[in-house]
Amino acid sequence: MQKIEQLKDVLDMIKFDKNGLVPVIVQDIRTNEILMLAYANRDALELTIKTGFAHFWSRERKKLWKKGEGSRNVQEVKEIKYDCDSDAILYRVIPHGPACHTGKMSCFHNVLVSAENYEAHSSSILEELFAIIEERKRKLPEGSYTASLFREGLKKIQRKVGEEALEVILASIDQKDKASIIYESADLIYHLLVLLAYSDISIEKLFEELKRRRK
To answer: Taking the complete model, does pTM exceed 0.70, yes or no?
Structure first.
């Protein structure tokens, strides 16, 4: 992020309302999913620029707050934009956990009008799944299969990755049974993500390596 001094002229252009606030839309920079809407005053905006993590102004509590300060679901800000009228801000972030207090990745999970007969398929499900896995690792809730893997440790996780890889190979013998190949592949990907989380390797590092190979 740039230094505040370098951005003073731009910050002076932002049209804060009569309460000194500007709406902030938060977007996942990897998937383009809209995560939440909050408000920031100039101090929150400057803190976001200085620290590289999303800060806002709580209208209810009348105080500055860092997203994730309690839940640890912080948002790493990679880019900040403002609209053509300079009265709205966009944080483009890498979210480290769900944005919504309900545990959903996005606060916009209630449907008013649905896009009938349309379903988007993208890598965003991997980020959502990985975020849940990381949360299970932190909290280790009782009754969670994912948490039980972390409790049993690396050897158990390694064994499961090996077992699921074999299941994919066996399922692929019958090329007509596509459903089994898909099912077993999903199991393998899930356990691979658990192994990454156990090893403290973010899913972004995996994507970076794949992009490097593509080049």
So the answer is: no
